Amino acid sequence: EDQVTQSPEALRLQEGESSSLNCSYTVSGLRGLFWYRQDPGKGPEFLFTLYSAGEEKEKERLKATLTKKESFLHITAPKPEDSATYLCAVQAPSGGSNYKLTFGKGTLLTVNP
Amino acid sequence: DAGVIQSPRHEVTEMGQEVTLRCKPISGHNSLFWYRQTMMRGLELLIYFNNNVPIDDSGMPEDRFSAKMPNASFSTLKIQPSEPRDSAVYFCASSLASVTTYNEQFFGPGTRLTVL
Q1: What angle do CA A24, B38, B43 make, to 5 degrees?
Q2: Interface contact A106-B31, CB threshold 8 A
Q3: How far apart are alpha carbons B45 and B90 in whole angstroms?
Q4: Are B43 and A87 in contact (CB < 8 Å)?
Q5: Cβ contact, residue pair A99, B95, below 8 Å
Q6: Are A56 and A65 in contact (CB under 8 A)?
Q7: Distance between CA B24 and CA B93 in Å, rounded?
Q8: Element (H or E) spanning A24, and its range?
Q9: What is d(CA A63, CA A78) in angstroms, rounded to the nearest whole number?
Q10: What are the pLDDT digits (tens) for B16-47?
Q11: Chain A closest-CA separation from residue B107 CA (Å)
């Protein structure tokens, strides 16, 4: 069974204090690893897709990296508006389905001004 | 584009009542997904459709849950009869997918369901 574990569960940072969120996964036949951002009362918002080990993608203050066992979401000089829950999901063939996403429980990031 | 549209946004009902949640996917997307989110279990896939056909319903918790997609622009998730443990936020997502392309899913705003 595909498993996705995110750590830490919650993270408090001061504005400008860089850090990283971790997503460890166990899947057979990874098709892609996705990062989403979720604000309170809203649906998850797509950030990145990573397909192979060694791949990196950046968007503003966020950079996602991927190895064969885990992914990191690096946040550089965060601002209060970066506060949200960050979700990691893996996509792998499951029960004949090529499109099933298995989500981690997320990391709740709070950035204080 | 309007994004994924879900209705209602909030639903409060009593145990035993039928509940119907609705979703309109992004125009042109051929895959539609229903998820349930709770604090305990996180975001779980219930069922997904490809080209209006249900492909994987292994996440549907029991026979009280059913989903339909009569056409490319509309889907429903029905719970009958509803129980308090069904209280959660239900999300619909859509994607443009093929056999070899694994594209991101776009989520709707969700329906917060409370069963008393």
Answers
A1: 40
A2: no
A3: 10
A4: yes
A5: yes
A6: yes
A7: 9
A8: strand A19-26
A9: 12
A10: 999 999 999 999 999 999 999 999 999 999 99
A11: 5
Which structure tokens are listed for B44?
A: 């779980």
The number of angstroms, rounded, from the C-alpha of B112 to the middle of its chain's C-alpha atoms is 12
CB contact under 8 A, B58 and A95: yes
Going along chain B, which residue ranges are E strands? 5-7, 10-13, 19-24, 31-38, 42-50, 53-56, 65-71, 74-79, 88-95, 106-107, 111-115
Identify the three-state secondary structure at position B85: helix
Among B28, B39, B14, CA closest to B89: B39
- Given a cut of 70, whether residue A96 has pLDDT beyond it is no
- Nearest CB partner across the interface for A103, out of B31, B43, B108: B43
Interface contact B42, partner A, CB < 8 A: yes
pLDDT tens for residues A21-67?
999 999 888 889 999 999 999 999 999 999 999 999 999 999 999 99
The residues, any chain, with a CB within 8 Å of residue A47's CB and separated by 6 or more, are A34, A35, A36, A37, A59, A62, A64, A86
Answer yes or no: do B43 and A95 touch at CB < 8 A.
no
- Residues B10-14 have a mean pLDDT of 97
Question: Tokens 């918790």 appear where?
Answer: B61
- Residue from the list B56, B91, B104 with its beta carbon closest to the beta carbon of A49: B104
